[in-house]
Amino acid sequence: MDVRTADDFVPVRLDPFGRDQHRENAGLRDAGPAVLVELPGGVVVWAVTHHDTLQELLADPRVGKDARLWTTFREGRLPEGWPLLNFVTVPGMVTADGADHRRLRGLVSQAFTPRRVAELAPAVQARAEELLDGVAALEGEFDLREHFAYPLPMWVIGRLLGLATEQQDALHELSDTLVSSSATPQAAIAAQRGLYALLGAVVAAKRAEPGDDLTTALIAAREEGDRLSEQELVGTLLLMLVAGHETTLNLITNAVRALLAHPAQLKLVLDGAVEWSAVVEETLRYDSPVGQFPLRYAAEDIRVGGVLIRRGEALLASYAAAGRDAAHYPDADVFDLTRQPARHLSLGHGPHFCLGSGLARLEAETALRSLFGRFPGLRAAEGAVPEPIASFVSNSVRTLRVRVD
């Protein structure tokens, strides 16, 4: 059988506005486990869309995260203001490999411990109840994303990092632009500069006046006398800010949307037949909060089926596509809380598995249990048609209008 390379394909242009990711992903899956796609700016990469193939490549030592492995980046061929550039260049764990990655992850793990996460549980519960008190006062229809799904994880990551309340909305707005594949070059550059400036100010303030927060702990973290550099520190905070609230915001929104669209499944969990943890795991599979995550790079030639991914070429981790791979999940397009086993790849796999997975699960389970415990009759607002987020990186909707009677 002949092996084809990128030269043998016409790339599929991904919709930068993410208007119908699941339909688009179905076409990509049908085309094969690795499909050549075109990103904004004419940048061509491989999208890895099949579950088993993605799982293998996420743990494959021949696939790296250091952008210096990517020929297009190394040769300076990315367009100025490319909207996904920060994913490629942010210093820290997310762009490091091998010993460097282990060093950075080890330093961050000293501060981001399971004990610190577990100690947050009562505060997360209390904050969820406070937000629901505010929702109850709205008396009727409201945007669940704006009034509940966003402020809860933003408050949690703000508390963890020691952010001032007035900094949180500004950071959220900038991070929204950062994860948008449809952002203009000017907006992308401005968002990156704004985030680095704000987070740099946070670091400076914590150096001057340490607190009981993750930023102070990261500043103090050591491994054999080693510390995070200033760039690594700000890059790590940026990663935690974006991953710590954008993805959890999407997860809570997507879970509520799926439950309201599947009342029989909602009844199962309200009746106690399944746990809220099952809702979180099935949502992560069925409607992953991250659609396409950029980027990884082939450190050497890798054969995937009848396709050869050549050294120096880049790959997208197509989490939302892999979650509905019918070759791995029976009835993949069905939202089924009794699905066994409930494993998925939406929190990653291999050495870059999400360090904050425990916190994300804690927040999402607390949010859903509290929301439906307070409002078991919650329903979608009549006539409301949710608009997708304008990105193929984020996978959710901009608003979720619901009604409480």
From TrEMBL:
InterPro entries: Cyt_P450, Cyt_P450_B, Cyt_P450_sf. Belongs to the cytochrome P450 family. This is Cytochrome P450. It comes from Kitasatospora paracochleata. The lineage of its organism: Bacteria, Bacillati, Actinomycetota, Actinomycetes, Kitasatosporales.
